[in-house]
Amino acid sequence: MFSNFDFSVILNSWRYLFFDGMAFTLTLTALAAVGGVVLGTLIAMMRLSGLPVLPQVAKAYVNFMRSLPLVLVIFWFYFLVPYIGQWIIGAERPIQVGAFSSSLITFTLFEAAYFSEIMRAGIQSIPKGQSAAASALGLTYWQSMGNVILPQAFRNMLPVLLTQTIVLFQDTSLVYVLSITDFLGAASKVAQRDGRLVEMYLFAAVVYFAVCFIASLLVRRLQRRVAIIR
Amino acid sequence: MTSSAMPPVSPVPEPQAAVDAAPGTGPVGTLLTECPPVAATTGPMIAIDNVSKWYGDFQVLTNCTTSVTKGEVVVVCGPSGSGKSTLIKCVNALEPFQKGQITVDGTKIADKKTNLPKLRSRVGMVFQHFELFPHLSITDNLSLAQRKVLGRGKAEAEAKGLALLERVGLKAHAHKFPGQLSGGQQQRVAIARALAMNPIVMLFDEPTSALDPEMVGEVLDVMVELAREGMTMMVVTHEMGFARKVANRVIFMDKGEIVEDAQKEEFFGSPRSERAQTFLSRILSH
Ligand SMILES: Nc1ncnc2c1ncn2[C@@H]1O[C@H](COP(=O)(O)OP(=O)(O)OP(=O)(O)O)[C@@H](O)[C@H]1O
Ligand SMILES: [Mg+2]
After folding, report:
1. Domain for residue A2, yes or no?
2. Residue B44 pLDDT more than 70?
3. One Pfam family of this protein, by short name (chain A) (predicted)?
4. pLDDT exceeding 90 applies to what percent of chain B?
5. How many domains does chain A divide into?
6. Starting at the edge strand that comes first in sequence, how are the strands of the sheet with B46-55 ordered?
7. What is the pLDDT at residue B9?
8. What angle do CA B9, B14, B18 make, to 5 degrees?
9. Which residues in chain B are contacts of A140 at CB distance < 8 A?
10. With 60 as the cut, is the pLDDT of residue A223 above it?
């Protein structure tokens, strides 16, 4: 059935696909995951702080982000923010937000909502006695968080955080709507140039599947190794 | 005051001298490697004055008044749910209270200006479930607060931790993680961790009640030694053997009230309240 397929298109373009496309995808995934976990952890801490207002703000943010389609956020951020920025600083022209920084900020803000729910569960899974013991030793809130609670929460949640990162890896393909050359963007450009749509999209699917499948296997292995002895 | 069982609290009680050794005169290699710093106040180490606490509508503590003098060992007992843990947690402000006053070494803990982390660092606390930090090695468990709170260097903190570990008989386990130790061993580490901060007073909340029976002794031994070295201790426990051996006073609580607060001999001789008598006969009968 593949008799009239021409897979040489892949051989001819693999450098472009991987060194341009996949490199962008992986960089965006890694940076957005780190940014999302940091911001998500802060949001989770706000949510659990027991202080006035902060928990509601955190909750509203998470619910807002989770009820928007990601594509919309990407579009909104890329097309509207230059104008909002222009309006805020009163510039003559829309301010320039590069495609990379635009998508990085979008993914960080969006994923933070999901990571914050994971970190919230992680923090809540640590017995109350742990923070009591930390306080009793004289550690401040931030010292106790940084040295006692978050390291344990993070280790407990690492498999879930990584699984969410795999989802993020797949989601980054949506930046192709901004005609950014991520892996899918690169594949679709080659496909259109050479008129080999089926071959290229099939290949892209295989690559996404392989990366995610192998990453999931590694996460499961890691899960067994990081567990804290109790 | 609901009963006549409460003895009057003298403003400046005399230090108790009922322990075998006076502070600082223990044998070489004691648990207290240096004399804890004590402010030059003449009042009691812990003064609990008319403290009441509510969880919503439910009153957990009702007008609790007592004090602990320097070098004194006070055992707190009473039925489950009587507020023992709550009272002891109020002493280092782990739990807030709505009425009354608690003073630790002259510092009012409910005062907004009080630096609570600093105050807590001078009050050692040992929990029923040990609460060692499971992600850190024993060495790191012992040095974390020394370094972060007291600003000690890594080498100094680890040396201090190791010395205390040796005193509780666990030097060989320094590199292990809490999950690799037995309950009794973990609780001894927890005591060493509290002592590493050079506390002026130690609080214990049922330190042996989560342990298998054969491990209770090893923890009590450490506590007895500590008491004999002159540590000021407030101990929630049902181990009446421990109370008989080293306590100066025994406090009996019921339904959030201090029902009985008496010298040990007096308490075991003739507890005056009916509730205390019932409680004692129940726990001493097995
Ligand atoms: N966070 C809380 N919220 C509401 N009620 C509480 C809370 N903590 C404790 N209580 C209640 O306060 C009362 C006293 O509790 P506390 O833990 O001080 O008792 P205890 O004397 O230490 O008992 P035990 O011997 O079981 O440890 C109990 O009735 C308990 O149910
Ligand atoms: Mg209790």
Report:
1. no
2. yes
3. BPD_transp_1
4. 77
5. 1
6. B58-68, B46-55, B99-104, B107-108
7. 43
8. 110
9. 117
10. yes
The string of DSSP codes covering A79-147 is: HHHHHHHHHHHT-SSPPP--HHHHHHHHHHHHHHHHHHHHHHHHHHTS-HHHHHHHHHTT--HHHHIII
- Whether the CB-CB separation of A111 and A40 falls below 8 Å is answered with yes
Cα–Cα distance measured from residue B37 to residue B274, given in angstroms and rounded to the nearest whole number: 41
Apex A189 CA angle, A188 and A192, nearest 5:
85
pLDDT band at A77 (very low <50, low <70, confident <90, very high): confident
Contact B120 A152 (CB under 8 A): no
Q: Which of B127, B136, B142, B148 to mutate to test the interface with A (most CBs of A within 10 A)?
A: B148
Contact yes or no for B117/B263 (Cβ under 8 A): no
What is the whole-number distance in angstroms between the Cα of residue B61 and the centre of ligand 1? Answer: 10
CATH number at residue A40: 1.10.3720.10
- Asked if the model's pLDDT at residue B71 lies above 70, the reply is yes
- Tally A–B CB contacts below 8 A: 73
**Is residue B89 in contact with ligand 1, taking CB distance under 6 Å?**
no
The closest CB to that of B117, out of A129, A130, A140, belongs to A140
Report if residue A91 sits inside a domain.
Answer: yes
Pocket of ligand 1 contains residue B62 by CB under 6 Å = no
Query: Token digits for A194?
Result: 């050479």
What is d(CA A17, CA A114) in angstroms, rounded to the nearest whole number? 29
Residues B60, B89: contact at Cβ < 8 Å?
Answer: no
Q: pLDDT band at residue B22, thresholds of 50, 70 and 90?
A: very low
Q: What is the mean pLDDT of chain B?
A: 87
The answer to whether residue A227 scores a pLDDT higher than 50 is yes
- Going from the Cα of B176 to the center of ligand 2, the distance in angstroms, rounded, reads 29
pLDDT computed for residue A92 by the predictor: 85
Domain that holds residue A90: 7-226
Say yes or no: CB of residue B80 within 6 Å of ligand 1: yes
Q: Does residue A43 sit within a domain?
A: yes
Is position A1 within any domain? no
For residues A43, A49, A55, A59, the Cα torsion angle rounded to the nearest 10 degrees is 40
User: Residue A143: closest CA among chain B residues belongs to which residue?
Assistant: B148
Give yes or no for A148 touching B (CB within 8 A). yes
Instruction: Give the tens place of pLDDT for each residue, A158-206.
Output: 999 999 999 999 999 998 888 888 999 999 999 888 888 888 999 999 9
Smallest Cβ–Cβ distance between B127 and the set A129, A140, A143 belongs to A129
Residues with CB under 5 A from ligand 2 (ion): B 85
How far apart CA B74 and CA B68 sit, in angstroms, is: 7
Alpha-carbon distance of B231 to B142, in angstroms, equals 19
CB contact under 8 A, B92 and A147: no
Q: Describe chain B by its helix, strand, coil percentages, rounded to 5.
A: 35, 20, 45
Q: What token pair was written down for B84?
A: 């023992």
Could you give the ipTM of this predicted complex?
0.85
Can you give the pLDDT at residue B238? 93
